[in-house]
Amino acid sequence: MDAPIADAGLLGSITELDCKLVELGRGLRLLAHLSWPARSQEEFLVRWRRGERVLPQISYQVTDYSEQDKGLAALELRAAALGTHPLVEYLRRTAQCLRLEIDLLHGIGTARVTDRSIELFGRPGDELPGSSQTNIDAARHFIAVAEEFGPEIRQTEEVLQISAADMRDQLQREVDGFFVDDPVRVELDPELLAKAAAGPTRIRLRESATFDQYDREQLLQHEAFVHTLTSINGRMQPHLPSLGMATPRITATQEGLATFAELMTGAIDLKRMKRISLHILAIDKALHGADFLDVFEFFLEAGQDQGESFISAQRVFRGVPLTGGEAFTKDAVYLHGLLSVHTFFRWAMKNGRFNLCRALFAGKMNLHDAIALEPWFESGWIKGPRYLPVWVQRSGGLAGRLAFSLMANRIALDKVVVEDLVLAL
Predict the structure, then answer these.
(1) What values do phi and psi take at 188, rounded to 5?
(2) What are the sequence ranges of the domains in the chain?
């Protein structure tokens, strides 16, 4: 594809606006603003174990981002004056997303968080790409598979528990050997409720957590070699450093790509697929009136222990009232993103466009961005990824797996007669 003509003046204006966009987006750390203190888990569980069904008491600090919102509105107007150039449209869409994020942050603790998170991330019941099935259908499928085969698999696998400190040391050795020019620290965080969180310069692990070998590979492939990697690569962009920003508009693709990485490397297991799927059903329950206690008990009944059930339930209620009818819907993106990215890779393989798959790692973008910005990748104005996961570097092996999946998906399992299959072999 030939790169569309764009004069130096226009490209200079785009770079200037992009730098301003990065400046205006600084500090809008959505999940940090919505996070619950680590002590909330123990406080709730102590009362729960005494038989007290009492909602957690969570307070939030609301930060005023009105000046940044005004700046983003002005940036949108400046971008509109530059026309409909694809790079300009990228800037405009990102600015619009950041303004929605600001509106959500201004409404923390209210129903506005539900409305804005649905705009940003979607909701349970949304249809999957190229299918009449919804993310709820997919979630129920994976839960059923996990419940049918999970116990048998667990009986045949030896699960070794790893302390947070040992996991930190193991991950640190791996990231040191991979990000050779860009130091990334792996740290223990006593205040982190999630098991892990990744940024461009550090990966945090919950200090009180224990891990297993599946966790280790998932953390490497998901957190380090996608989330941290795309942050570093994006920040290196000479003309479009906003590709290093973690904005909500890229969340579905980013989480889908990270989960797809687990799938391609064998790091994902049925327990994780079930956990991702349960979160979608839990969000749906909350939107239909379930309160925090109802959702907590839903996770307990699904087989999670009390600590994990609390963490899962708080993910659903981050930033919203706990009394039912509201939810923070971000976790609805995981299956949608995974299936979208999987389909995108297969489509790119089939159509000889594998360069688009590599482009996804050059920064934080969504699938639309990878296609719309393709000419500027090819011209070199947007740089290709400095770091690339090993499974993507080995494109021959990846292409083989994708080619096989394209063929295998043509086989309708409901038409397979197992006796004929056995005899054929």
Answers:
(1) -95, 135
(2) 8-415
**Structure confidence by residue, pLDDT tens digits, 140-178:** 999 999 988 866 665 556 668 999 999 999 999 999 999
pLDDT at 158: 60
CA distance 220 to 121: 25
Q: Is the pLDDT of residue 139 over 90?
A: yes
User: Residue 320 and residue 33: Cα distance in Å, rounded?
Assistant: 12
The 8 Å CB, 24+ separation contacts for 116-121 are: 117/319, 117/327, 117/328, 117/329, 117/330, 118/329, 120/248, 120/249, 120/251, 120/330, 121/248, 121/251, 121/252, 121/329, 121/330, 121/332, 121/333
- Predicted pLDDT at 23: 96
13 CB-side CA count, 13 A? 15
- pLDDT tens readout for residues 189-203: 999 988 999 999 999
Kind plus residue range of the DSSP H or E element containing 261 = helix 251-264
| CA end-to-end distance (rounded Å), the chain | 46
Alpha-carbon span 72 to 78, nearest angstrom? 10
H or E segment and range at residue 288: none
Query: Is the whole model's pTM more than 0.85, yes or no?
Result: yes
pLDDT of residue 421: 47
d(CA 55, CA 327): 15
- Tabulate helix, strand, coil % of the chain (nearest 5): 65, 5, 30
For the record, the structure tokens of 411 come out as 């086989």
Show the DSSP H helices in 265-362 as ranges: 270-287, 292-301, 306-316, 333-350, 354-359
Partners of residue 204 on adjacent β-strands: 187, 197
| Over residues 86-114, mean pLDDT | 97
